[in-house]
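Aim 2 progress. For Phage baseplate assembly protein V, the working sequence is reproduced below.
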Amino acid sequence: MIEQLISSMLAPLMDRISDIEAELETGARRGRNAIQMGTVTKVVGQRVVIAIGKARTPPIKWFACAAGDVIEWRTPSVGELALVLNYGSGDRNTSSIALVGIPSDQFPLPSSDQSKVIRKIGALGMEEWDKETGKLTVTAPGGVEFVTNEVHSTGEMSDATRSMSADRNIYNGHDHGGGPEPSQKQ
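Predicted structure tokens for this construct:
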């Protein structure tokens, strides 16, 4: 009889403890799901699908360095690492964003030189700034196109043969078989 009395008095407390345990487990699961490392498996328009273990996110947005008046945009690569931030804390990652740009064995950093700022674009293109010398090297095997009214240089312009000032000296100093030098200088 005393045991039944104690049991009936403890029943609400035991139920509350059970509820608290369930809430703690839910909170722990949400905490584990809040930040997870995964891999880009697919690009769907302007969203990506990320594999986290055997699970897949729905198509989610990815982080861009700038997305206001100035926009810097690129499509993440399939196989690229992504840190998934589940800001909605749900189980299905519907309120998540992917942070991409994490180096990996598949996509390693192009240099360990701390004086270089490098943007490698695919297998062929690259921009490399040297912070110490100020030199910019652009590798663009397909060419470079400027869409502008004018290209202005404060320094010398050269091609594989000679500089523009050397060409100007040749033009200004040439004659036509003993005739006078050109009257209109370049």
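The chain is about 25% helix and 30% strand. This observation will guide construct design in the next reporting period.
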